[in-house]
Design brief:
The chain is mostly helical and 58 residues long. It has three helices and no strands. The chain has one domain. The longest helix has 18 residues. The chain is globular and about 35 Å long.
Length: 58
């Protein structure tokens, strides 16, 4: 059984920001907006990391 299944947390929840894929970053931002709207610092960090990754692709 995967850790995420045992803990009820998303699989990306225990990873450092730099190790998250673009899909995981997007999923984390959506999750935070829906479930943890008070965590502005984490949301900004995720958004910055996503912007950095997508800018590097273009």
């Amino acid at each position: 059984m995967e850790v995420a299944e045992r803990t009820g947390r998303p699989g990306w929840a225990g990873k450092p920001l730099r190790q998250l894929s673009v899909g995981e970053l997007t999923e984390a931002l959506v999750y935070l907006e829906e479930c943890e709207p008070a965590d502005d610092a984490l949301s900004r960090a995720l958004a910055a990391q996503l912007a950095e990754r997508t800018a590097a692709v273009c």
